[in-house]
């Protein structure tokens, strides 16, 4: 095996096709590990989350030239001032992160990484600080084992819940699988929307020529929530514009709006990737609270996902109560921290 180190965006661009092809075979095939997503993230440093850093992404290539593993790392000062190797995408806006490697190679790849990081050839680091790894990822056990072999300090921390709904592929079957009270509420709200003054409709954005104005509407609806308004810095808005365009171009954007009489009153910014829907962000107009526009749009998206035979509806990070009411089953992401000792 030959390890290659990516140190510049120009080098990273060369790997786009091979990167995404490997991701399809990876133990962790998630949209946040797509090349175009991480390229966008790096160019804005996570929408301004990080003030600086250096690329240190490691490629594991076989002697025949095939890429078998990618560690999408960068080096920065973490939030307590340590020189840290971290995942590109860390921390706030990327729900799931991981190494990229097929299930049958991940153990060997972790071994190659740890051996490399122990040598003098590796860039200087104090800690490996990896956020948002799904608890089911095989990366976790392999990192723990290798750290123990090196007598490095290994810490594992449970972070946010990530509720997910496994979809039956039929709307009525989905409704039958949630509580009677919630089923009644969804049907009641959908009936009310059908008879709401001014007319209610929802749609998924499909016209690229309208995309910039649709993104502006997304930002406007998100910004009506005071907490999200603080989140929407100029750098973050730039990040979101670039991400929406990249996801649309590659075919995995699901940007959906609910309108009342032509006025947009709710939005869901999702990813339609890998035969599941990934719920990334949302916004609503609080002047239409009596319509429950968020619930109405979410119910329609769940019906769409069932009708289009998506396997799952992933709410991703966050413990909001509505995720459980709609049938979400919690999983968790973890943080792995390894120090030389």
Fold and architecture overview:
By secondary structure, the chain is of the alpha+beta class. It has 2 domains: 2-159 and 333-339, Gcn5-related N-acetyltransferase (GNAT) (Aminopeptidase, 3-Layer(aba) Sandwich), CATH 3.40.630.30; 164-314, Aminopeptidase, CATH 3.40.630. 38% of the residues lie in helices and 27% in strands. The protein has 12 helices and 15 strands. It has helices at residues 9-13, 16-24, 35-48, 106-118, 138-150, 171-176, 180-194, 211-222, 226-231, 234-250, 293-307, 321-325; strands at 2-6, 54-55, 57-61, 67-71, 73-77, 83-87, 127-134, 153-161, 164-166, 200-204, 253-260, 263-273, 276-284, 312-314, 332-339. α4 (106-118) runs parallel beside α5 (138-150) and α7 (180-194) packs across α11. It is elongated.
Number of helices: 12
The proportion of strand residues reads: 25-35%
Gap between N and C termini = 27 Å
Low-pLDDT segments: none
Which CATH C-level class of the largest domain is it? Alpha Beta
Order of helices and strands: EHHHEEEEEHEHEEHHEHHHEEEHEHE
- CATH topology annotation of the largest domain: Aminopeptidase
The CATH homology group name of the largest domain? Gcn5-related N-acetyltransferase (GNAT)
- Give the helix proportion (percent range): 25-40%
Q: Under the CATH scheme, which architecture of the largest domain would be assigned? A: 3-Layer(aba) Sandwich
Layout of helices and strands:
Elements: E1 2-6, H1 9-13, H2 16-24, H3 35-48, E2 54-55, E3 57-61, E4 67-71, E5 73-77, E6 83-87, H4 106-118, E7 127-134, H5 138-150, E8 153-161, E9 164-166, H6 171-176, H7 180-194, E10 200-204, H8 211-222, H9 226-231, H10 234-250, E11 253-260, E12 263-273, E13 276-284, H11 293-307, E14 312-314, H12 321-325, E15 332-339
Parallel strand pairs: 6-7, 13-14
Antiparallel strand pairs: 1-3, 2-5, 3-4, 5-6, 7-15, 8-15, 9-14, 10-11, 11-12, 12-13
């Amino acid at each position: 095996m030959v390890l290659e180190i990516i140190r510049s965006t120009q080098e990273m661009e060369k790997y786009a096709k091979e990167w995404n092809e490997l991701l399809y075979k990876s133990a962790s095939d998630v949209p946040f590990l797509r090349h175009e997503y991480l390229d966008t993230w790096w160019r804005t440093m996570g929408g301004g989350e990080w003030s600086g850093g250096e690329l240190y992404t490691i490629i594991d290539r076989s002697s025949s030239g095939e890429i078998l593993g990618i560690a999408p790392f960068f080096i920065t000062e973490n939030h307590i001032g340590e020189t840290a190797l971290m995942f590109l995408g860390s921390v706030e806006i990327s729900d799931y992160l991981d190494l990229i490697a097929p299930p049958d190679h991940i153990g060997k790849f972790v071994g190659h990484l740890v051996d490399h990081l122990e040598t003098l050839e590796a860039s200087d680091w104090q800690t490996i600080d990896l956020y948002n790894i799904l608890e089911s990822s095989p990366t976790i056990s392999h990192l723990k084992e290798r750290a123990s072999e090196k007598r490095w300090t290994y810490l594992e921390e449970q972070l946010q819940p990530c509720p997910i709904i496994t979809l039956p592929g039929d709307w009525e079957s989905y409704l039958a699988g949630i509580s009677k009270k919630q089923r009644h509420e969804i049907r009641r709200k959908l009936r009310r929307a059908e008879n709401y003054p001014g007319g209610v409709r929802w749609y998924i954005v499909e016209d690229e020529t309208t995309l910039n104005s649709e993104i502006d509407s997304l930002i406007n609806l998100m910004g009506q929530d005071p907490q999200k308004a603080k989140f929407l810095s100029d750098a973050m808005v730039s990040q979101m514009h670039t991400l929406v365009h990249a996801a649309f171009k590659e075919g995995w954007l699901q940007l959906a709006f609910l309108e009342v009489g032509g006025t947009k009153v709710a939005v869901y910014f999702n990813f339609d990737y890998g035969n599941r829907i990934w719920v990334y962000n949302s916004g609503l107009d609080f002047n239409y609270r009596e319509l429950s526009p968020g619930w109405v749009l979410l119910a329609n998206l769940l019906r769409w996902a069932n009708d289009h035979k998506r396997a799952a509806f992933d709410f991703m990070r966050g413990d909001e109560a509505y995720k459980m009411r709609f049938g979400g089953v919690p999983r968790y992401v973890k943080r792995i921290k390894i120090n030389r000792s």
